[in-house]
Prior knowledge:
- The structure holds 3 protein chains of 3 kinds.
- By secondary structure, chain B is α+β, with helices and mostly antiparallel strands.
- Helix content of chain B is 35%, strand content 14%.
- The mean pLDDT of chain B is 95.
- Chain C has 9 helices and 2 strands.
- A two-stranded antiparallel sheet of chain C has the order 1-2.
- In chain C, strand 1 and strand 2 form a beta hairpin.
- Chains A and B meet through helix 3, helix 5, helix 6, helix 11 and helix 12 of A and helix 1, helix 2 and helix 3 of B.
Amino acid sequence: MTTSTVLDAAVPDGPMADKWDNHKFKIQLVNPANKRKFKIIVVGTGLAGSSAAATLGELGYNVEAFTFHDSPRRAHSIAAQGGINAAKNYRSDGDSVFRLFYDTVKGGDYRSREANVYRLAQVSVNIIDQMVSQGVPFAREYGGLLANRSFGGAQVSRTFYARGQTGQQLLLGAYQQMMGQVAEGNVKLHTNMEMLDVVVKDGAARGIVCRNLITGEITSHSAHAVVLATGGYGNVFYLSTNAMACNVTAAWRAHRKGAFFANPCYTQIHPTCIPASDEFQSKLTLMSESLRNDGRIWVPRNYDETRAAKDVPEADRYYYLEEKYPSFGNLVPRDVASRNAKTVVDQGLGVGPLKNGVYLDFADAIGRDGRDAVEERYGNLFQMYDRITGEDPYSTPMRIYPATHYTMGGLWVDYNLQTTIPGLFCTGEANFSDHGANRLGASALMQGLADGYFVLPYTIGNYLAPLLGDDPLTIDDPAFIEAEAELQGQIQRFLSINGTRSPEYFHRELGKIIWEHIGMERSKEGLEKAINEIRALREEFWADVRVLGTNESLNSSLEKAGRIADFFELGELMARDALDRAESCGGHFRTESQTPEGEALRNDDAYAHVSAWEWHGPDTPQTKHREELAFEEVELSQRSYK
Amino acid sequence: MSKQLNLTLSIWRQENAASRGRFETYQAKGIPDDASFLEMLDIVNEGLISEGELPIEFPHDCREGICGTCGVMIDGRAHGPELGTATCQLHMRKYNDGDTIVIEPWRATAFPVIRDLVVDRSPLDAIIQAGGYISAPTGTAPDANEIAVPKEVADSAMDAAACIGCGACVAACPNSAAQLFTSAKLWHLNSLPQGQPERFKRAEAMVETMEQFFGSCTNHGECTEACPKEIPQDFIAYLNRDFVKSKRVNRTMASRS
Amino acid sequence: MAAPTAANQGHTSSADRPLRATPRSLPFPFSLYQTSVGKKWVMAITGLMLIGFVVVHMIGNLKLYLGVIELDGVSDYDVDHYAHALRELLVPLVPHGVVLWIMRLGLIAGFGLHIHSAYSLSRSNMVANQAYESKRDWLAANFASRSMRYTGVIVLLYLIFHLADLTWGRADWFEHGEVQSNVVNSLSNPLVALIYILANIAVAIHIYHGMYSMFQSLGINNPSYNWLRQGAARSLAIIILIGNISFPLAVLANIIEFDPSLITAGY
Lengths: 642, 257, 267
């Protein structure tokens, strides 16, 4: 086992506001005529991947983009509803780059890297310009200028949106831009290709190995640099708002090849999702957080309440957020809203047939503003809710409950978005960098596009410039042959176990353990229990999983088995990371670390650092490396929403 | 607690594009009526796996009606009986105990079956690649508010841009035409000020690529009925208008290149 | 149509296998006719011409109801005056019959283009489409829209029959230029009358969808006025249907008659 080290994030010197400009000036450039000689692989075609592939193609690099979907436009960025933040200050309400930076660091509960966040806030303004030029139909005022709204409790209106489909519209913009580069021949697009390994030789990333999901063919692809833009790992919870295919495999296989995995225990639980209705529930649906602007959250005061919601008198309703947090009320940050919902449901006050939700009531808003006004604001969300639950939210309150939504943890990257493997870069949700322990609403889209459009295309040049004249490895290099053989071995192993349980079963069981012990509230005891349970289930998985069919055909069970195998290892690491971090911060409440009033208590003396974990094999615990976090611009303070 | 349904399913099974497919009958027992249609298929698949039979492959991903991956023909209707709803958003409470449901993949020559209910819809991407974008390289954009877009225009563009690319319009069309998809994509960009410089080049390229793969529009109107986003056929008229104009106003001739 | 590739032998995506190649582009307006959207445009324009012809033809035929009229000292059935006038259009500026022939040639060209584009679009649609094995549940497609190919063929066959019947002459009673007599002779046979009635139902159905479809194909669309398009198509089809099937019914009911003793002389 190697000893723990302190990681250097390569943050440039100088005042915060000048770091990025200075850095861009100092890093090495690749001559325009030479860019064509460099081959870059981009894995994943969501916001971070498409925008990176398009921009690298425009710069003249020789890009190969990979997606495991049938079309790049299916990536789960498409499902983001609410909006995208940018420090445009179009409302003249006092917003600025510094304020967005400040809000993001504070919102992340002081667990993010200041320099990265500042850069994110700086380039946020360019993202809106770029997306408008791409034809993204953002909401407009009657004068034809862009509309904004306040989102997720922000004190300024800095969120740009396209109805409730902002993620879709941004992804289409980035995807179309990339398709333009495909047409130009600068980007070669591979669909239905799942990346299953990163090939590392002489200490640098040299390419990837993929499985064609339709033919089962395993192929190697070599390049000068590899960019992973493969999204988050929320599906480790089984039930989450992620798409069914979202997984950790690409990032995890990179981790197994030496990339450190940072802060895996930082996951975001979104407070306004539709509660599960039965055992076979396959996913949870998120309702935009904007609903909390007008809806009032409550549960009955009585444990054995049997009356319909509208018949419960005011005196018997417990508006727990309004009572506990009078100044923010129903608009407290996501983590606070989620944790309090869990508390009341755990107390037995939950509503709905499974007593697993809380009410989000629009009766007052409808009474105050009229049904039409509410319909205009939330009509499509109400319709979606009605469709899923069969209940009409105009007449009976919605039922909501928190669900896993986003993962702040991911591959550790330095200021250049490079992982601990030289030549392997990581962007978007797949990296850990910008959100700390909690992400603000409307910031995920911003980060994905910032990385892909405005950060990586510069910083990758610094890595490539010295490699001029080096050819990428040929794919018959032993490094590729070995990786291919190892994958074939894993596939054959899955197909030959011939156990009794489907991959789905193991995923569901794993999810229950993770949700129970590594969800919103954690304890030492629970986490230790989780590690044991995950290990036991993992052993059972490898002995008893049943994967039918062959490799040489579309076989979703086989795909799923490989992804679940990685979720097991990740789940264990999440538990270890959470165990190690004995403080309450961001979305995570550690029972051992709370104030006398039962609120989250952060421990800056012991944990103001990034935990980056190094892989040593499936049966050896990872070692922890630290990146110390210094707060020069934003003063450390305990968050309070009372 | 929810009701439970017992259903008879007739589902298309096919090993690959080259093999012949057939309908197989399955009994789906004890399906909770709160389940979504795809969760019903999940339950059937769990049963098949436990009996050692290959599970049914069906297209799905986000399961919230936005990614456009899902889509099958259910009892003769693309995306099933509920209008304006993708397959994943269809719930079993729409069905009654004892119902028989027939499930078939999308059919079009350009959408060959990959396996069971999964088809290859890549020609839709080929249409985008032909011109469904605005050439505005990263970093060149003026300030976002320099381009004022009348609210009505932005709203109309958004109506078109709501397309999720599921291919239901093609699947529902008796001619397997992709006019609704193409026109939605085209109008999204062609209606906006940012899209004007490439407007006619785009119209020509996208329509001609579309015609390499798909049939022609004979104005049946099945596409809009099938569309989970209820995109109107008005956009098809705008496509026709812009395309005919593109042939007349050939701007590449003006540039002598 | 490209052969399907075995999915397990190096899958190529459907996007790599176009069903047809884009031909080398001809100069405008021929370039338009090389595309399906252009052919639909031509169908719409020629369809409009043909609808115009059907309407004018029907209005002309309504003269069958007017009986005998004296004009320029000639006492003849009004419809025969009309037929005579058509042949004499713009005479003496142009020779006898020329204008009529120009119109006929225009119609022939219109028919030709309409039929050719319909044929080639149908062919390519058949290549693009694969039938469902299960029963379709149509939501918007109606009988008219789905039967265009068949009503179109019926209309063509009817046109040939109608020309043979009343333009070229298929029987002994036929006398060139004697419209009233020919019509009454032909339609007093109940079987022939039935053919006319059925064929005109097909014409009306064809025109109903064709008229509506024309607006879309030509890009005539304004959401504020779109409700008019269906109404216009339906009204026109009904007017044409009522007008045209009234003739055989009127002949069978002896409302339209021919009595040689009432006319002084033919032209």
